[in-house]
Amino acid sequence: MARVRVRQHVNPLSAKYRKPLLIPEWETIYPCLHQPLHLDIGCGRGKFLLKMAALYPHLNFLGIEIREPLVIEANEQRDRLQLSNLHFLFGNINVSIELLLSSFPPQQLNCVSIQFPDPWFKQSHKKRRVVQPDLVKVIADYLVDNGSVFLQSDIQEVAEKMAENFLANACFTRQHQETWLQENPFPIQTEREIATLNKNQPIYRMLIGKKFPCNID
């Protein structure tokens, strides 16, 4: 299969990416709709989820990606592998995250992963970063008690800011004593993670849990 070539970065604030997500009828996507859901935000080509879905058939997986050609490619690969517990969706998660999460049965979102998001280094571009306080609040609203959020980046400042945004929300707490996890808690590594490790460069990882009970204002 030919590898789709796409732009590495797109501006999530441009009009093209401000349209609401087109959310399918989930009953037609997942045969076992009420299985716990793992949401991967910024899933890229979906290699991480394609392997995770094969390993964990008792879970449902959903990848969100803002570059549509990658979503098309990933869903085609999912179909070839006959993974009925996996779906990829095109769109800007910050536009429609509450619409998306409210479309699932209650108490279903079990885990969220955000791995190596676009860094947007310039000060004027930081509002384009995916992890914003509003995103964190909605995740806190829908994540099950004791559910988890996994963050990782090869850029320390990006990882620190993601962690800061989540830990500023009273519902979340770090799940380990050390500042950064040394090992990935999942058995699958992303393509970016593998490339970074092969260059002997550091990765900044954090596992965050939702407190129980959590009183959301």
**According to CATH, what is the topology?**
Rossmann fold
Question: Any guess at the CATH architecture?
Answer: 3-Layer(aba) Sandwich
Helix tally equals 6
Q: Distance between termini? A: 49 Å
- Integer average pLDDT: 88
Cross-sheet strand order for the largest sheet: 3-2-1-4-5-7-6
Structural class comes to alpha/beta
Instruction: Please outline the major beta sheet.
Output: 7 strands, mixed
How many domains? The number is 1
Count of beta strands:
7
From the spread of the alpha carbons, the general shape counts as globular
User: What's the CATH C level?
Assistant: Alpha Beta
| Beta strand % | 15-25%
List unreliable stretches of 5+ residues.
none
**The named CATH superfamily:** Vaccinia Virus protein VP39
Radius of gyration: 16 Å
Tell me the series of helices and strands, N- to C-terminal.
EHEHEHEHEHEHE
Fraction of residues in helix? 25-40%
Describe, in plain words, how this protein is organized in 3D.
- The chain has about 220 residues and is of the alpha/beta class.
- It has a single domain, classed as Vaccinia Virus protein VP39 (Rossmann fold).
- It is about 30% helix and about 20% strand.
- It contains six helices and seven strands, in the order βαβαβαβαβαβαβ.
- The protein has helices spanning about 45-55, 70-80, 95-100, 135-140, 155-165, 190-200; strands at about 35-40, 60-65, 85-90, 110-115, 150-155, 170-175, 205-210.
- Strands 3-2-1-4-5-7-6 form a seven-stranded mixed β-sheet, sandwiched between helices.
- Helix 3 runs parallel beside helix 4.
- The longest helix is centred in the middle third of the chain and has 14 residues, at about 70-80.
